[in-house]
Write a structure and sequence with these properties.
Blueprint (H helix, E strand, L loop, with lengths): L4 H47 L6 H51 L2 H43 L1
Helix pairs in contact: 1-2, 2-3
Length: 154
């Protein structure tokens, strides 16, 4: 074979870099996921406290409605974060398979394996794009939730 181990590793490195990039994206999204879930728990706790009050005044009813709206929107955010994490994780799997196919192709010189490596790499890139769309949409929803809190204070 005219391929050295160094060349094989270099060929397999491009998908490896994407694996690292996706790992960072997953780490960031998992952090967001924890924050959103924690916020939902805090709002549910606040809602429970309001429900235990015997006397309902207009401010409490208004606050309870705002909390309910926030919880509903945070639930949407959690779904988007989950979808983004899934898309990034799927992309990592595709990049790993692409990397393996590249390594196998350097030994077998198979057109089918070469084609598969390209297909899995492209599917991985599309999956990263889908994850970014979910992450961007989640950020917009997060901004809308903050606007609700700001409007409550004014």
């Amino acid at each position: 074979m005219d391929y050295s181990i160094v060349k094989i590793i270099q060929a397999m490195l491009a998908p490896g870099l994407m694996i690292s990039a996706c790992g960072l994206l997953i780490l960031g999204m998992n952090n967001k996921y924890s924050i959103v879930v924690n916020r939902i728990r805090l709002l549910n706790d606040e809602k429970r406290k309001l429900l235990h009050l015997d006397k309902k005044i207009d401010d409490d009813i208004r606050r309870e409605n705002i909390i309910r709206i926030q919880i509903d929107r945070l639930n949407e955010r959690v779904r988007m974060v989950r979808n983004a994490v899934f898309a990034y994780s799927f992309a990592v799997a595709c990049f790993i398979i692409a990397s393996l196919c590249i390594g196998i192709n350097l030994y077998t010189r198979s057109n089918e394996v070469e084609f598969l490596s390209l297909v899995f790499f492209l599917i991985g890139m599309i999956s990263v794009f889908i994850g970014i769309v979910y992450a961007a949409n989640e950020s917009l929803k997060g901004y809308r939730i903050v606007r609700i809190e700001i409007e409550e204070l004014t």
